[in-house]
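Hello Y.,

Per our agreement to keep a running log of every chain we model this quarter, I'm adding this entry. I've kept the format consistent with earlier entries: sequence first, then predicted structure.
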Amino acid sequence: MEIPLPEAALRAGVMSDFDQRIHSLETRAKQALSCAPRDAFVWLVMLGLEVGHGILDQHTFDLLAMSYETSPYEAWIAVRRILLATPILRSAPEPLQDRILTEFQNLIRDGYFDMPARAYRNASGAVRELLQARIGQLDPQRQKSFADELQGRRP
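Predicted structure for the entry above:
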């Protein structure tokens, strides 16, 4: 419930409130992990906070790896994770790059088009090429459904 509060403060232009909300969210996430270290959503929140701070170091990628380790097949996490992971794809170590690309491909294969389409639209040209290679490995119907989503034509 606390996640949208920093964004609301930022939109309102109240930077002191934004900083306070981010700090509170970071503290609460760390507390949650100390009690429930396998909570996949909290690992994802921690990743989002790091990326939001513009930090792309080994710790950031460790957070992403923990998110994959704690929830490798949970679609409700994966559709959110792909939005955070795609922009940092090219900076990620090779094994994580493959996990990001595989998750992107699997989401589309399994019929989740919205978030992968958002990730694709926001990706750089170099990242789009990598994503497109994975799309090309899917069956033609999934490729068409994804293309329809990109064009705003939902079935």
